[in-house]
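Dear support,

We are seeing what looks like truncated structure output for some complexes. This example has two components. We would appreciate it if you could run it in full and send us the complete token output so we can diff it against ours.
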Amino acid sequence: MAFVARSLTLDLIRAEVLATGQVVADSVRCVQCGVCSYNCPIGLDVRAYVWCNAAIEDPRCLTCGQCIARCPRGVLRFAPTDHSRA
Amino acid sequence: MGLRYVIVGAGVAGIAAAESLRTREPSASVTVVTDDPAGFYSRPGLAYYLSGLIPETQLFPRSPAELRALGLTWVQARANQLDPYAHRLILADGQTLAYDKLLLATGARAALPDFPGSELDGIVTLDSLADTRSIVRRARQGLQAVVVGGGITALEIAEGLNARGCRVHYMLRGARYWANVLDPDESQLVEDHLRATGIILHHHSQIREAIGKRGRLIAVETMAGERIPCALLAVAIGTHPRLDLAQSGRLKLDRGILTDAYLKTSAEDVLAAGDVAQVYNEVTGKATLDTLWATARAHGEAAAATMAGIPTPYRRTVAQNVTLLAGIPTTIIGSVGSGEDADLVAIARGDSETWRMAGSAWVVVDPHPVNRLRLMLGEQTLKGALVMGDQTLSRPLQRLIAANADLTPIRQALLADKSAIAHLIMSFYAEWEQSHADKR
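Here is the complete output from our reference environment:
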């Protein structure tokens, strides 16, 4: 039961991140190596967003953080969505 | 008929210019001339391909369909001659290409070694995708390899070969790694990490001769008489801007193609961008080379605007690079070092000449054993910073340095208590950002 309870907590955290957080880029650090896109579990072309210095606004983004963790140059990070700031 | 734009070079400077020109002038003729059959790829990404982090296919930021959609004319050829008076290029096959506005984004090539035997098969540099393919093909489990040189590229090759199972010897001419950018403790951190991954370091070591058998490398001999058997020798001693085409057009040159702040060369309607451009800085009065991806992209975009009739100076920002040094995330911002590095004969890739213009500055170091932070503190502002490990502070520092923020309120505290540097910078930045945002 403890395992189930913990999973539920994680799900709630994830739901909150999905509602209020998004992945944003600092494109001046990026060299378009594509490590982010390569590691995206649902195949989003994260690199293309970074080229435009745009947040990853695709509604399919899981905010799983793989791209953030794998980027060798610290280009990506979580930030509150514009909506959650308002 | 619209203007004929020609860009020589398909690196990031060339592609950024081509995309920008296409946006500005949808119906203009934009031609990209490149002698690299691989077209546009992430050159810094080659290190990650070499180490096996990504496959080769991942190196291309634009799909063939995306490139087609830009409506560019691609000419895969070497441009041999430039006639700026006639406004034309002559390609290797004798074909002539006329232009109204020309951008030279020819990049830089690896400096070649000059010791005897340097023509042997098995001696490689890391310039292009073709070079990387060749290294990947040769690198195999247990192969003995030697790496010489300095800066980021030498380290990336050593780590890449090590990741592919080679037994790597890394030879340094001097006492430590990257002596004109890193301080002794930072060099030590990098070298400790290299050793921990199994790379064998040789200090004060220089190749006297590469020894071959039937044209193939079998060993290197050092000045001290040591002989290291090896089938692969990677050389990364710096890069030289590719100046041949500019030379043929009698453009004004120094170490690179000299340009004004608008990236205009000495010839009318000819601009230069990226690693080949030595750009005049109106603030310092000096013309400097950068071999940074972000700088090359910014050059390309500024040059495109000027070519399209909207004179736009390259807005020089603080030179910055973020890289993994022996697995340690490292950000170098602004001026952090000085002097020469015995392992480099010219500017390395991922480097900026401005990093070594530190001059007089107070050096403040947070002596954390893993997450190291070094600040170059001027009278009122920060001149540079080097952040190793935890990168939380790198963005705040990048912004404070770029904005020439006045650090007077915390200057004494920074000098007095080194263990509080990170905290002081973070709290100062939070307030600074708030007031900065309020003023906007």
